[in-house]
Design a protein that fits this description.
Lambda_DNA-bd_dom_sf, transcription regulation, 12 helices, DNA binding, disordered C terminus, single chain
Length: 341
């Protein structure tokens, strides 16, 4: 299959097809999506070797994620892969295992083999990221560093929505269950919750940090119970699901005694018992937008007016894990004590 076949199927000129696949920002969104769909339908495979010889590019983009087993990254990986494939690029997937040291090491390993990098939830210090972005094309996802192009899922606004939701249900003691200490998003979400609580004259409490895996929910749930809180917002859905499991083991009713809210709306969040109230985020779209921004940069690295950052909105999806704050009953009188009517 050639671009002429795609042109015949879509009814546009072959030159338009070429631009849509190699320089997507130069074609309207509707036309670009129609051409990309036709390319997938025809199983079009561009001649990347010829392009590499003429352009000096490898035709490969590295996508680094902090934990490939976390369902949150499934959508990002799918989004980047679809967008790269439509543009004729291969994707190199790298798992950095939540380690800034490994992330830095692997970036050094792949930098000569790829045209650019998409960094999802980077754990690197800001200074290191700035240096790397100055040396090679980089787009970050869920990491906001001055001078580095980024796609940010606005989960802090979602956390503020979640906090308002719990306050509206009568909760006054609400805890933020923190994620990894090296996570930029973790601190941003905590600041958002603290701000929402302060606006209502309430004091925010944070516990953690905890790992981002489901197993961390056991320790998080025990620490949560020790606070006496009636509601919590967890760093991510995996921790929240682990909390639900542990609370069930301990016979704590959710949401009767404690309301639990997660973040990301990963696959399975609505299958929990009870189904998890969580922040729904455009995760796959974030991957697509990151690739589009990277390709724009590759095609016109010095172009003025390039998008420095894109912020994608989130919204709260209310399910059965959150409910009204429990009514605090006075303690039962001790034996022999008078009962006041």
């Amino acid at each position: 299959m050639t671009i002429n076949d795609i042109a015949a199927l879509t009814g546009v000129a072959a030159s338009t097809v070429s631009r849509a696949l190699s320089r997507p920002e130069r074609v309207s969104r509707v036309t670009r999506e129609r051409i990309q769909a036709a390319a997938r339908q025809l199983n079009y495979v561009p001649n990347t070797q010829a392009r590499a010889l003429s352009s000096g590019r490898t035709g490969t983009v590295a996508v680094l994620v902090s934990d490939v087993t976390n369902p949150f990254y499934f959508g990002i990986i799918r989004g980047t892969q679809h967008q790269l494939r439509a543009a004729g690029y291969a994707q190199l997937l790298v798992d950095t295992e939540e380690s800034p040291e490994l992330e830095s090491h692997l970036l050094g390993k792949v930098r000569r083999s790829v045209d650019g990098v998409v960094l999802a939830a980077s754990r690197l210090p800001e200074e290191t990221l700035s240096v790397i972005a100055a040396e090679m094309p980089v787009i970050t996802i869920n990491r906001n560093v001055p001078g580095v192009r980024s796609v940010v899922i606005d989960s802090p606004d979602g956390v503020a929505q979640a906090t308002e939701h719990l306050i509206s249900l009568g909760h006054q003691q609400i805890v933020y269950v923190g994620g990894p200490a090296s996570s930029w998003a973790n601190e941003a979400r905590w600041r958002a919750m603290r701000g929402a609580m302060t606006r209502h004259g309430l004091t925010a409490v944070r516990i953690g940090p905890f790992g981002s895996a489901r197993a961390s929910g056991t320790a998080a749930a025990d620490a949560l119970l020790n606070t006496g809180a009636t509601g919590c917002v967890a760093f991510n859905d995996l921790i929240a699901i682990g909390i639900l499991d542990r609370l069930a083991e301990r016979g704590v009713d959710v949401p009767g005694e404690i309301s639990v809210v997660g973040c990301d709306d990963i696959f399975g969040a609505d299958f929990c018992n009870p189904p998890l109230t969580t922040l729904t985020a455009p995760i796959e779209r974030a991957g697509r937008v990151a690739v589009s921004m990277l390709l724009e940069h590759l095609d016109s690295p010095a172009r003025k007016g390039a998008r420095p950052a894109v912020i994608l909105p989130t919204h709260l999806t209310v399910r059965q894990s959150s409910g009204p704050a429990p009514q605090r009953r006075p303690p039962a009188p001790r034996s022999g004590s008078p009962v006041v009517q």
